[in-house]
Every structure is written in C-alpha cells, then in structure tokens.
Amino acid sequence: MSQPSFSNASAWSHEGLSPSSFSLAYQPVFSIKAENQFVVAFEALLRITNRGVTQGPAELVTRAEADGTIIEIDRWVLDQVIALLRSRPRLSVWINTSQLSIAHPTFVEDAIRSLTSNQVIGRVSFEVTETADVDAQILTKRLEVLRLQALTVMVDDVRDGYAKRSLIFSDAVAGCKLSRESTRELMVSERTRAEVESLVKLCRRLGKQVVLEGIETTDELSLARQLGISLCQGYFLGMPANPADLQHFTEMRPHD
C-alpha cells in the first residue's frame, strides 16, 4: 500500500515560506503521579524560521485555516513525525491537528493508511485544536473513525473558548488539555480553580485524562498534584527541543 503524498506547494505560499522554513520541536509530556515523574509522550510543536528568526505557528495557522492550506501543513507534520517514529521504537508523539483537517474527506483515512503502512499506528495521538470551526456532527464522525483504529484523540485548550466541550463525552476522545493561560489563572483565581476541579472530576468519572500545560514553577506542579491532574507539560519539566537535543530521554534515542 503506497504512502499518500503529504506535499503541496500551495501550503508554503504565505510570505514566501517554503517547506525548508518549517521544523518540529518536541516537548515531553510527564506523568507526575509519583515523585519520580516519567515521560509518557512528546508533543510535536511546529516551528517556522523566516529571515533567520524562529517562532511559533499561531499567525500562520490562523491564515492557513482561513485559506484551507492548514490541511497540507498538518499532513506535512504527520509525515515528519512518522519518519521520526520509524527510527525510535519507544517513542509516542502527540500532534496538534486542526478541526479542518480532521473533518476533511480524506485526511483521516490517509493518516491511518500512512501510520499502518509504516507500522507506527498506535504511537500517535491527535490533539484537536480549535481556531477554525467545523460542523460538530462531521467532526464526531471523523473522530469515531480514529477511535476504531485505536488512535487517541485529545481536545486541546478546552477552557480557552472551546465551543465543542461536549466532545469530552464522546467515546472517541481520550481526554483534554488545559493551556498555559489556565495554569496562570489557577494560581490566582478561585473561580478558575473551582472550574478546573469540576472538569477534573467530570473527566475522572468519564475515564478521561486531563493534561495541564505550562508548568513553570514548583508551586504550579504542586497545584497540579493537588487537583489530581497526573499529566503535565512545561518548561519546569522539559523544554521543547529538536530530537538530537533530547537524547537524554531514552524514548528519543534512535536505533543503535
């Protein structure tokens, strides 16, 4: 079975960018249940280098979702992650994926085909992001296809104006993520803490995971434990870096 082509020149047209302008950094996701926390996965983060400056993708993603090229960018990210997974048998990766891509008529099937043919299916989880908006019924159907292939889906930034929180109740969704903004608010707002405590209880009742992003201090890590959140990311735990700079994690070491 041939691997689908994940390249389209139109996806790189913004401000003169080309595929060589894009790279991926990987940030570890830690289980903090025990004092000796350990890595459960790495999140792939898109980085763009333009005129010698490397930055995050927020502005590009907004424009790419507006003109539809986000689908090709998400295909490119998946292709790069698959190449990394082939050389690192202990590695699991979480990929940020636009709702537009998930709802696209062929994206999910192409992704499953590529993951299967490269023998890495089950080692990729999709984080569904919401900048663009798509029909909830279509999105749910596409997520169900991923579930049937035992592919994990997380709802990203669930408190940041996410319009489809009802996805948490779907059997196709394994859990949700709370952004750095939520972490900041948790440290100063009793209202936010009450909201997050309620969310954590709901997810626990439904058998879902909760991930808290943006852990930058010992106090924030302690608060995550107090709230019963067992999965965390943040600079305090592990910085985003390219694979070569993460060799101290056994999961990031290639075949000997």
Automatic annotation (TrEMBL):
Q: Which domain of life is it from?
A: Bacteria
The record's InterPro entries line, in alphabetical order, gives: Cyclic-di-GMP_PDE-like, EAL_dom, EAL_sf
Q: SMART domains attached here? A: EAL
All copies of the EAL domain together span 6-254
Q: Which Gene3D superfamilies match?
A: EAL domain
Cite the Pfam families for this sequence: EAL
Please give the PANTHER family that the UniProt record associates with this protein.
CYCLIC DI-GMP PHOSPHODIESTERASE PDEF (PTHR33121), SIGNALING PROTEIN YKOW (PTHR33121:SF70)
Entry protein name: EAL domain-containing protein
Question: Which species?
Answer: Pseudomonas arcuscaelestis
